[in-house]
Amino acid sequence: MPVPAFPPLPPGFLDRLSSILGPRNLLTGGDATAPFLTDERRLFPGAAAAVACPGSTAEVSALVRACREAGVPIVPQGGNTGLVGGASAPAGSLLVNLRRMNRIRGVDPANATLTAEAGTVLATVQEAARDAGRLFPLSLASEGSAQIGGLLATNAGGINVLRHGNMRDLTLGIEAVMPDGRVLHGLGGLRKDNTGYDLRHLLIGSEGTLAILTAAVLRLSPLPRQRVTALVAVSGAAQALALLDLLRDRAGEALVAFEFMVQATVAMLVEAGHGFPVDPALPAFVLFDLTSADPEAPLAAQAEAILARAFDGGIVLDGTIGASEGQNRAMWDLRERLPEVQKHFGPSIKHDIAVAVSRIPDFLSRAGAACAAAMPGCRIVPFGHLGDGNLHYNLSPPDGMAPADFLARQGDINRIVHDIVHDLGGSISAEHGVGLMKRAELARYKDPVALDAMRAIKAALDPANLMNPGKLLP
Amino acid sequence: MPVPAFPPLPPGFLDRLSSILGPRNLLTGGDATAPFLTDERRLFPGAAAAVACPGSTAEVSALVRACREAGVPIVPQGGNTGLVGGASAPAGSLLVNLRRMNRIRGVDPANATLTAEAGTVLATVQEAARDAGRLFPLSLASEGSAQIGGLLATNAGGINVLRHGNMRDLTLGIEAVMPDGRVLHGLGGLRKDNTGYDLRHLLIGSEGTLAILTAAVLRLSPLPRQRVTALVAVSGAAQALALLDLLRDRAGEALVAFEFMVQATVAMLVEAGHGFPVDPALPAFVLFDLTSADPEAPLAAQAEAILARAFDGGIVLDGTIGASEGQNRAMWDLRERLPEVQKHFGPSIKHDIAVAVSRIPDFLSRAGAACAAAMPGCRIVPFGHLGDGNLHYNLSPPDGMAPADFLARQGDINRIVHDIVHDLGGSISAEHGVGLMKRAELARYKDPVALDAMRAIKAALDPANLMNPGKLLP
What residues does the FAD-binding PCMH-type domain cover (chains A, B) (predicted)? Predict the structure, then answer.
């Protein structure tokens, strides 16, 4: 995908940066910069001449001022695990990688918060919370390398959104460097603050186009002392929703995650040699977690009673409850392997869609019929966060189709799927963001009133258009 | 407090409005407009010549276009229960009251959402949710008259924020009429949507200065089937926080509300003739709720075990658990009577502050000492949402002080309290908003970088400055 280029860096600019950061923290030359210019999917190669690694908010501020004076575009980058090219740095831009800002500034157990710098890796935050007897509930595949700044910039989701919300819901406040280099201070750790526009929520999810996020106050939850994981078979998405309803109604606040897979998805696991603890020939499957902070809550008995009821009501066809934390983890491991296992079956055409939870069955039947008609024999392998109305709606090629022929159809298939999503009032990017990949799609599907408001805000806060230009906004 | 005036309405303007709305829905003349021009506290009298009552989003849109063409400022209004003058309509402005837009557009149990128009009264939404076997958890004193639009515009809080969040956390999407009259559509009911800046969160809490909210998709929770209410005595705020910690740790997701009062607050209840079920001579009190969706969860036993532990640990001095829903309600009734009871003791000087929960004890001791020094003998009667770090820090006059003398000190006392809040990184408006009342305070305390960003956004989205001008932004 083409990444736009900007004019070359002005003379003396790198010397100025070097004096701000120290020469060790300004990377130049192909070997040093290459890891930062290659994205997770290898779709959006960067070409920036330099990577700046500031070590403090003051350094970020000085660096932004220098870029502003020199007219150099800035591309902020976290763990570089994004999937849509949001952190790809074109020629003529400066890539600002936050990894040196990786301190946990403090844990406040009584406030149930943790303050972390933007470059802190998610797993490090999870661990620090656990050490303080608390849970930081955001959990996703890249948690070993994704950083807080990137997770904020893309409002990351993952498997526990159903109960705990996504990154914005888990953030009480932010610190950020604005496009003019001034620092926005918002780390008071407040749960309530009605003193004007919520700039925190405006910057979260703005993909680096409005500011560089430098730190955040994150909300911690009680540490669960029990978990019940169940994998059950259902006859389809409508029955999965009936189970979701039953679980919400009876287990309420204990329901943390509710994932969905169909037979074709599980068939890939089985063909790839993985064992599956429920009859894989059944039509669809749900994996869910109940947790409780109370070590004595009768959680397993509750899960069994709910499932018995669901079985009697014809909602659930078969199922198993993990008898140990090891079994629980093994079931989640199957779920987490799906993206990797799909690679054994050739290239993928992927979608990251959301609709109202109640519309998922309609979406699946319409999209399934349309994709099968457009590409007979393709493997449609949706999976994902049904409890949030969010599915990774992925396709693999029909037997015998050449990878290039399959990928040549990506645009058509995207159009078919996204048109249906749009018709159902849904989102074409539920959790991955827009970046470079979905800018053109955004122009097509996003409410034009919203787009105009976004453009007006961008122009107001970043009049020189130096913050991650060319991303997100079509 | 002075409310600025604008130029008189241009000739023919009211006729145009009348043709949009129908003459019955355009109120003019003192008798018809008076109820809309008198605010809850009778501090911010309005003087608008007309009150427009649109019945649909299309009418709001037409009305905004008419105002824009005529250059007439618009003041949106909901249930007119606000405390800071945010809905006061000066001379020369048009008051737009949304009460006719009071339809519940739909309930989607599978998506756990309800779509309501801006003029729907909160109690009506609560009832519709209950009828669908769900809970809409926002709860506050004015719920019988406060409307969804106003609750959104001020990001209302209340007693259940600890578990369920405030209004913005309970809102999945909004519909709004922008300052140019176009309609922003956002009622897809999505739990995940990462396609650009979060305009929902920008408009929520913007107090009518950026758009007129016309409808919202609200998030419903499982209906609680059990509630345990406890009123306990503690030796101070630090011990109350230790109890909060224990409850969060053991009861986790079951803890819904956690309210705090001190001896002086309870003394007013007793002096006013109310019974109090715990020794009122003890230093401080906590009222909390545990709830569960599971009718069989051993919630009462859990509460007893936690309180026994807290008693053994010296955290709790005395206490009672409601033996029936009637007793539970009676305890909450005492809490809810506090604002009214305080009126028996003369005028009040009020504050609506938030700090990090962990800083509440420090705030209370510093503010208590400073207020006592500034006004010896004054009654300091804080109460409120300790679990959110939010207290209504109220003062009543010393015995024998004339009301006027007391109120003449309001500015000094505000300064003392707000300076301490600011020093602790807190907020001078936790849940009531800014409106007219706290604009000057905002200029003093708000991060200037945030203020500049707010002003830039306001100018970008409402360049003619017609949406509730003179409110919120200093």
Answer: 44-223
